[in-house]
Amino acid sequence: MESLDAAALPEGALLLVDSAPIIYTLEGHPKFAERFALLFQRHARGELELAITPITMAEVLTGPLKAGEEEFIQQARLARR
What we know:
Blueprint (H helix, E strand, L loop, with lengths): L13 E3 L2 H9 L5 H12 L4 E3 L2 H14 L2 H11 L1
Parallel strand pairs: 1-2
C-alpha cells in the first residue's frame, strides 16, 4: 500500500479518515503526526473535505473522556456541527 500524497489530491476531494491519523495529529506523535499535517492543513484551508464515522469519533474521544478533558470534548462537539 502506498503512502498518501496529500499534495496530489484534487481540490474538493472527499476522504474518509480513520482514527489513527487524527489521534497521531492531536497527540503530536513524533513519528506520524507530520505525515498527516498537510492533509489536515488542506482541510483547514477548505481545499479538501474530510469525513469520519461515528466509531472514529468514539475512538478519538475515548482518551479525552477518560482524562476529563472537557474543553477538548466541547470543541469536538462543536466541530461535528
